[in-house]
Amino acid sequence: MQSPNQTKILILGGGFAGISVLRELESTYKNNDSIKITLVNEDNFFLFTPMLPELASGMIRPSAISIPLRMVCKKTEFIQAKVSSIDLKSKLVAITRPFDGMVKILSYDYLVIAMGGTTNFFGNKQIEKHAFTIKTIQDAIGIKTHLIHMLEIADTEKNPALQEKLLTVVVVGAGFAGVETIGELNDFIKDSVRSYYHNINPENIKMILVSASDKILPELGEELGKKAYESLQKAGIRIIPNTKAVDAGEDFVFLGNGETIPCDTMIWTAGVTIDSVITSLDCEHKSGKIVADSYLRLPNYDTVFALGDCAAITDTKTGGLYPPTAQHALRESKILSHNLKCAISGKQNQKQFNFESKGMMAIIGKRDGIAKISGHSLTGIPAWFVWKTYYLMMLPTFEKKLKVALDWTVNSLFTRDITLVRKIKRKSINQFSSDGMDSLDQVLFRSEESAKIQASKV
Ligand SMILES: Cc1cc2nc3c(=O)[nH]c(=O)nc-3n(C[C@H](O)[C@H](O)[C@H](O)COP(=O)(O)OP(=O)(O)OC[C@H]3O[C@@H](n4cnc5c(N)ncnc54)[C@H](O)[C@@H]3O)c2cc1C
């Protein structure tokens, strides 16, 4: 029940940044009725994005990495809705209910903007049309379904060039999402071929990572990025550095270096952009993001805070912006919550955000990873194990931790699950020769022709 004297905190976005601020505030204000917290998110769950590549490779199930937001909202009111506009001057936010499009206006005393980013195709409509993305649960399931279809068709394809095209996966973008995705899918495809698809020539599997720079995983720094580069190459992945994908069709990717790669699967992870609700805000922006000062407040708006992928926060040591990672979002949330509580209580000891990395890591396939923890570099199985343990601990709720741990154990003991639970859109018949297999149209056409021939003979 809302009382007029309550202080209203409104959190927009229930990703890493939003829910970790929420948890900090809940633990402080759980018995304080003068504080009302509201969370708005367009999905009714929090998605643990670092495990999306494992969902695409069938190592874990969707329910293991999606946590209903109502499970973490003990005191907080949760509203499933899309934020459609923010008026910083009048302290009002318009939200739209996805079910029926009804709009509601929320007022706030303190606002936390944590709406993350969306995929950036840099205006390239062809790539947008033909590429998969890996940002949502539907994306990851879509990739897995598509790849199993490609394996099924490739197993009946006798033409080596066409089999290779079906088994070529091009991932564009060499940040966390791109590297972890190619590593996982490489193992998924190769394990599945070994176990089930005996007509496929493993030589025809081509896994390709396209990077715009000469490095991969820039978020992890030069040394670890170099190790990751070598590990991917050792796993049989071709890395094409200093190159951009500039065009794509249903069965090819065209690169800036002039190379055309015939392929039926392209996954785009090369850019993050910010929702137009954020870019249209009447405040300072950098690279489309909202500029937040070192206290994580918006300049000129003392009661508005921003963090995570949607916020531009300057690293005073390098002069650049902090990278968009879950680890930054989580660390920012601690400082932001402290500063927000100070602002509410009128205390002056607000803290500045300064990211000192305690460690960085990434997994690059089954039982392979790279990590730097307290200055010590790890690679291979130890790094992979540290990644698994860290992210297992980070998962909210014991139930989800247990589900993920069970999935990892079961799926590493048994062969991959290649059950096709969804159908995909049929591709043009010209793309497959599939000896002895034709489309229904071709079969019907031939039977009509042969009926005509039979009739003419009579
Ligand atoms: C495949 C993949 C792998 C990754 N691996 C790693 C990794 O290993 N390590 C790492 O540190 N980082 C990793 N990242 C990056 C990490 O996921 C992000 O940096 C992190 O999620 C940022 O947190 P956030 O809260 O700012 O944004 P998000 O987690 O994206 O949350 C934003 C939330 O806001 C909601 N939202 C957005 N717009 C609206 C709107 N208009 N109305 C209502 N709600 C809205 C979204 O639904 C979402 O719930 C990975 C990312 C991907 C995609």
Automatic annotation (TrEMBL):
Keywords: FAD, Flavoprotein, NAD, Oxidoreductase, Transit peptide. Signal peptide: none annotated. InterPro entries: FAD/NAD-bd_sf (IPR036188), FAD/NAD-binding_dom (IPR023753), NDH-2 (IPR045024), NDH2-like_C (IPR054585). The keyword Flavoprotein applies. Transmembrane segments: none annotated. Pfam families: NDH2_C (PF22366), Pyr_redox_2 (PF07992). One of its GO terms (molecular function) is NADH dehydrogenase (quinone) (non-electrogenic) activity. The keyword NAD applies. Residues 8-332 form the FAD/NAD(P)-binding domain. Residues 358-417 form the External alternative NADH-ubiquinone oxidoreductase-like C-terminal domain. Its EC number is 1.6.5.9. It catalyses: a quinone + NADH + H(+) = a quinol + NAD(+). It comes from the Archaea. Belongs to the NADH dehydrogenase family. This is NADH:ubiquinone reductase (non-electrogenic).
